[in-house]
């Protein structure tokens, strides 16, 4: 079992420990459960889907990296496929506050990067901040997304974000997690560039059209790609680097092990990721960034 889970796992009810043990005992547990695994764990423990999501929160929160706040937020997003995805907050010492990833953003992005089509619900161990509510208002599940919080009845994003501002206010119809391919091509043939290009092609940037994607390679040779997720209110947009680091972290890798990165964006974009990406990568000890333009 990955060392980060040991303490939280030991505090789970015995029946849940028994049901989860075969999944978590692998070092490469992907911080998600498939619909079939969820059904199996529910059958073994007698928990329903929602109770299981709450019970998993301490494991999700154990994935947080919080050198600044030491405040561990965990989230569990459920896709319409029935698969569930962990999320956890990530902080970067030596970078700007704006580089922080919230647990809700982590869970949502985790689901998106793994190809989930739409979210049905999200369960979080603390109330989502205004920034997260706005971030989630970009999703193709819209204000119908169910939000489960400890000690509260289930409510929708619409309940938590009344009089909301969102994509429709800017006449945008393509929403976060909708599938698309922007069709950019590039002659580069190395694996990292190819994955960065694919991420760029799947990025969500309907406001600026400044599509971008990144791929990170770790010292162990693994590759993690992230797509830009733009937001109607602009500031809650999530840069591609954050997407890739979310996936890397949830896969059990250490973000200090990023060896090199390829960022792909358009030439002279209205919104550029390059400088912030370079500076955040430097804060986590990676100075090998190749920035390619389309
Ligand atoms: O909705 C929220 C509010 C805060 N945090 C994180 C961000 C930061 O790492 C820490 C303190 O704000 O908690 C979340 O993950 N979600
Ligand atoms: Zn938040």
UniProtKB/TrEMBL annotation:
Reaction(s) the record says it catalyses: cytidine + H2O + H(+) = uridine + NH4(+); 2'-deoxycytidine + H2O + H(+) = 2'-deoxyuridine + NH4(+)
Pfam family, one: dCMP_cyt_deam_2
Cofactor: Zn(2+)
Record: residues binding Zn(2+): 102, 129, 132
EC nos: 3.5.4.5
Cofactor binding, per record: Binds 1 zinc ion.
Gene3D superfamilies per UniProt: Cytidine Deaminase, domain 2
Family, per entry: Belongs to the cytidine and deoxycytidylate deaminase family.
HAMAP family in alphabetical order: Cyt_deam
The name this protein goes by in its record: Cytidine deaminase
Species: Hafnia psychrotolerans
């Amino acid at each position: 079992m990955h060392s980060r889970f040991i303490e939280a796992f030991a505090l789970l009810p015995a029946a849940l420990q028994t049901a989860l043990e075969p999944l978590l005992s692998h070092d490469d547990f992907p911080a998600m459960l498939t619909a079939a695994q969820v059904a199996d764990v529910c059958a073994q423990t007698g928990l329903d889907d929602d109770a299981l999501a709450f019970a998993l929160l301490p494991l999700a929160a154990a994935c947080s990296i919080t050198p600044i706040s030491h405040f561990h937020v965990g989230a569990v997003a459920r896709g319409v496929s029935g698969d569930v995805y962990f999320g956890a907050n990530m902080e970067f010492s030596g970078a700007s506050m704006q580089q922080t990833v919230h647990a809700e953003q982590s869970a949502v992005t985790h689901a998106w990067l793994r190809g989930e089509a739409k979210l049905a619900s999200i369960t979080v161990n603390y109330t989502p901040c205004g920034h997260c509510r706005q971030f989630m208002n970009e999703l193709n599940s819209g204000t119908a997304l169910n939000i489960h919080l400890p000690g509260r009845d289930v409510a929708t994003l619409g309940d938590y974000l009344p009089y909301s501002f969102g994509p429709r206010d800017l006449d945008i119809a393509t929403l976060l997690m909708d599938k698309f391919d922007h069709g950019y091509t590039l002659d580069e043939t190395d694996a990292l560039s190819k994955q960065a290009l694919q991420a760029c092609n799947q990025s969500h940037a309907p406001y600026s059209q400044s599509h971008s994607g990144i791929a990170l390679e770790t010292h162990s040779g693994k590759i993690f790609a992230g797509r830009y997720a733009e937001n109607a209110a602009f500031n809650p947009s999530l840069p591609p680097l954050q997407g890739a680091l979310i996936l890397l972290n949830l896969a059990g890798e250490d973000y200090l092990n990023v060896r090199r990165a390829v960022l792909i964006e358009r030439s002279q974009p209205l919104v550029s990721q390059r400088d912030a990406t370079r500076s955040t990568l430097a804060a986590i000890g990676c100075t090998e960034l190749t920035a390619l333009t389309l």
